[in-house]
């Protein structure tokens, strides 16, 4: 049909008539150009959605106020793309393919460019709106999906911690009672037989075992909270190094300490002691990779109403991607590790309104603890 000879009808009516007669051809050309995966659960809706958009384009020619309908279709398609786990880039490509096919088809209508241009401008505008609404909604739905997954992961994570608590409560308390008795009898033996060999080693190993059990109790959050007290960090560090002396000697580690005598905090002493013991033991363990020159530096400084405790060793570098993960429960690089030591440290420090983080390079690995001054 030669539309240029139809002077009695409007440009809009001529164009709609042309699209009615060529609709199937338009859809065929568009379907040949789009990306549709065979495994896409919503692949059958692609043609349906394309046809709906085609009908909207026809309505647009005489009814410019179709923004609500375009948005409704965009939201529908976005939901389908999320359900099929489709690539949003492929959707945008398909939309623009539909736009291109539509415009090319209109150009062949025989209507002059001057008459067509306002209509084409409106078509471009509504295709842009369609893309905008669909991509925005797709992003919102994907974010919601991600939040649900994270909620599930966190719940699973909490379930594991709960299970750990149940397991700990069932055997750790039972294990602790006989351990306390053994430690008591060893002290009696040291009093009655001060020259008896190996008692110091036995006592140290029992204290280490008691420390590990305390870690599990803290991880399960079943330990009764002790009262806070004023702690002089210089005295606490001296006590800790005395406790760890056998491990330091066994590891052939050179320990240097610098503690500001004004450093004091209000805290639960056993909990802060547990944190420092755990990190120092980890540092000693890391230094086993060094054949020689094993150095451990411990400093405590008074900085603007807080104390900064730094424990550094010259062992292997901790990779950047691991520096946050090491504080997560059950994360460990040790073949026999539980992955709760540093998690407990972080939990206890944050309980005391402090912060702990790790810095590591090829020369040193440092664990830095900030705690409010007492």
TrEMBL record:
- For the keyword Aminoacyl-tRNA synthetase, the answer is no
At the top of the EC hierarchy, this enzyme's class is transferase
Q: What is its EC number?
A: 2.7.13.3
Q: Which keywords are on file for this protein?
A: ATP-binding, Kinase, Nucleotide-binding, Phosphoprotein, Transferase, Two-component regulatory system
Residue ranges of the Histidine kinase domain? 170-374
- Span-the-membrane segments of this chain are none
| A Pfam family reported for this protein in Swiss-Prot or TrEMBL | HATPase_c
**What InterPro entries has UniProt attached to this entry?**
HATPase_C_sf, HATPase_dom, His_kinase_dom, HisK_dim/P_dom, HisK_dim/P_sf, Histidine_kinase_N, Sig_transdc_His_kin-like_C
Source taxon at top rank = Bacteria
Catalysed conversion reaction: ATP + protein L-histidine = ADP + protein N-phospho-L-histidine
Protein name in UniProt? histidine kinase
């Amino acid at each position: 049909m030669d539309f240029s000879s139809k002077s009695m009808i409007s440009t809009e009516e001529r164009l709609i008539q042309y699209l009615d007669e060529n609709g199937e051809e338009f859809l065929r050309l568009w379907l040949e150009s789009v990306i549709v995966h065979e495994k896409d659960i919503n692949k059958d809706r692609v043609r349906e959605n394309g046809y709906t958009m085609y009908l909207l384009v026809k309505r647009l020619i005489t009814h410019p106020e179709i923004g609500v309908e375009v948005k409704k279709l965009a939201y529908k398609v976005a939901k389908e793309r999320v359900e099929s786990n489709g690539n949003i880039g492929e959707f945008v490509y398909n939309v623009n393919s539909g736009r291109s096919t539509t415009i090319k088809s209109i150009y062949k209508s025989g209507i002059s460019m001057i008459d067509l241009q306002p209509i084409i401008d409106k078509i471009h505008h509504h295709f842009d709106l369609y893309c905008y609404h669909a991509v925005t909604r797709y992003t919102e739905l994907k974010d919601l999906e991600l939040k649900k997954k994270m909620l599930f992961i966190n719940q699973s994570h909490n379930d594991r911690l709960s299970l750990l608590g149940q397991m700990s409560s069932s055997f750790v308390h039972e294990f602790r009672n006989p351990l306390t008795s053994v430690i008591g009898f060893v002290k009696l033996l040291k009093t009655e037989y001060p020259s008896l060999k190996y008692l110091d080693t036995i006592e140290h190993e029992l204290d280490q075992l008691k420390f590990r059990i305390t870690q599990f109790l803290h991880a399960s959050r079943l330990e009764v909270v002790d009262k806070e007290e004023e702690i002089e960090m210089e005295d606490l560090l001296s006590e800790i190094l005395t406790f760890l002396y056998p491990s330091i000697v066994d590891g052939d580690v050179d320990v240097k300490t610098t503690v500001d005598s004004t450093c004091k905090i209000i805290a639960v002493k056993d909990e802060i002691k547990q944190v420092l013991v755990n990190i120092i033991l980890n540092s000693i363990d890391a230094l086993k990779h060094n054949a020689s020159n094993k150095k451990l530096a411990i400093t405590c400084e008074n900085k603007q109403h807080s104390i900064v405790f730094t424990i550094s060793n010259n062992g292997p570098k901790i990779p950047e991607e691991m520096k946050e993960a090491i504080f997560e429960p059950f994360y460990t690089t040790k073949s026999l590790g539980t992955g709760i030591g540093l998690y407990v440290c972080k939990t206890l420090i944050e309980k005391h309104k402090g912060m702990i983080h790790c810095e590591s390079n090829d020369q040193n690995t440092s664990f830095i603890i900030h705690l409010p001054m007492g």
